[in-house]
Amino acid sequence: MRDFHYNQLTNERWDTETLGFVATINRFAGKQELYLKQRPAELEKLVEIAKIQSTESSNAIEGIVTTATRIRQLVEEKTTPKNRDEQEIAGYRDALNIIHESFDAIPITRNYILQLHKIMCSHMNSPMAGKTKTVQNYISATFQDGHTEVLFTPPGPVETPRMLDRICEEYNQAIGNETADPLLLIPVFIHDFLCIHPFNDGNGRMSRLLTTLLLYRNGFYVGKYISLEAKIEKSKAQYYRSLRESQWKWEEGMEDIIPFTKYLLGTVVSAYRDFEDRFSLVETKIPALETVRRAAHYKLGTFSKQEVRELCPSLSVSAIEVALRKLVISGELTREGAGKATRYKVNR
C-alpha cells in the first residue's frame, strides 16, 4: 500500500506557472475581503446564483440532470424530489449548504467525510450512504466506437479506510505545522482522494464538495460567489485529461501532480477574475441600462439573459429584459433565436 508525505511538498519542483497561480490567488483573496466590506448586500445576491449553478453543474458532470426550473426550486427548497436524479441533486444541495454555513466546524477526518457523503446520499435511502466502498471500483472511459477501457484501478475496499485516514492525517499535519502552502496542498489532497475513489458512488461530487470545504477553511471564499463546479463542467475535457495525466504511476508514489494542480488552481484564478468583473458592475450605482450594457461588453461571442443576470445580481429580471430590448432596438446588440434559446451578441 502506498503512503503519503505531504510535508515533503515543499521539495516538489513547482514550475513558475503553478507558483504564479498561487501568488495570483493570494492577491485576489486579499482584494475580495475589501470588496465584501464595501458592497456586502449586492454581493450576497451572488451566493444564491452560485449555489444553483454549483448544484446543477456538479451533478451534470456525472449525468444527473433535471430542468432549470426544477433545479432552482430544489435548491431553494420549494419542492421535493420526483425521481432519483432529483434526489441526488437535493442531497448535493444539503451537503453544500452545510459547508457554506459550518465549514469552520467541519474537521478534515475520515468520519466527517463519511458524514458529508451520508448527507449527500440522504434522499436516496442508499445502504452505502456514509460508508466506504465494498467492491473494487474502476475508472474507465467509453470511446466513440463503443468500447470501454479501464484507465485506472483504485485501491481495493480493504485498503480504502486506512488510506482515507492517512491523507487526512497528512493534510492536517502539514496545515498545522505550516510545512506546505494550502494552495498546493489542496489539489494534492483532492487528487489523492480521487485516486483512492473511496465510495461505490459519488466520488466526483464528493471531491468537488471537499474542494470547496478546503478552500473555505483556508480563507479562499470565491466559490461562495462564483461556482467552481460550473467552471469545471465547462472545461470537463481538460479536467479529466489533467486527472489522467496526474494519475499515472500513482500506485507507486511516482505520479506527476503538476497537471491536476495547475488545472485546479487555474480554475480558482478564473473564478476570482469573474468575481472582480461582477464586483465592478455593482461597485457604483449606475442606471440599469448602463449596467447591462457594461455586462454585455464583458461577454465574448453570444450570451443569454441568464448570463447577464449572473453579472448583474442587483437588477431584477424585468429590468434586465427591458435593458436588453433597448440595446437591441438601438443596434448595440443583435438578438438571435427565440424563447429559452434566445441569445445576444454585441455589435462591436
Shape: globular
Q: Element order, helices and strands?
A: HHHHHEEHHHHHHHHHEE
CATH superfamily of the largest domain: Fido-like domain
Supply the CATH architecture of the largest domain. Orthogonal Bundle
State the strand order across the main sheet: 1-2
Report the span from N to C terminus. 59 Å
Number of helices: 14
Radius of gyration: 21 Å
Major β-sheet, in short?
2 strands, antiparallel
CATH topology of the largest domain: Fic-like fold
Structural class: mainly alpha
Class of the largest domain in CATH? Mainly Alpha
Short description:
By secondary structure, the chain is mainly alpha-helical. Helix content is 59%, strand content 5%.
Question: In words, what does this structure look like?
Answer:
- This protein is mostly helical and 348 residues long.
- It folds into 2 domains: 276 residues, Orthogonal Bundle (Fic-like fold), CATH 1.10.3290.10; 61 residues, Arc Repressor Mutant, subunit A (Orthogonal Bundle).
- It has 14 helices and 4 strands.
- It has a two-stranded antiparallel sheet with strand order 1-2. It has a two-stranded antiparallel sheet with strand order 3-4.
- A hairpin with a 5-residue loop joins strand 1 and strand 2.
- Helix 2 crosses helix 3.
- The longest helix is centred in the last third of the chain and has 25 residues.
- It is globular.
- The N and C termini lie far apart (59 Å).
- The mean pLDDT is 93.
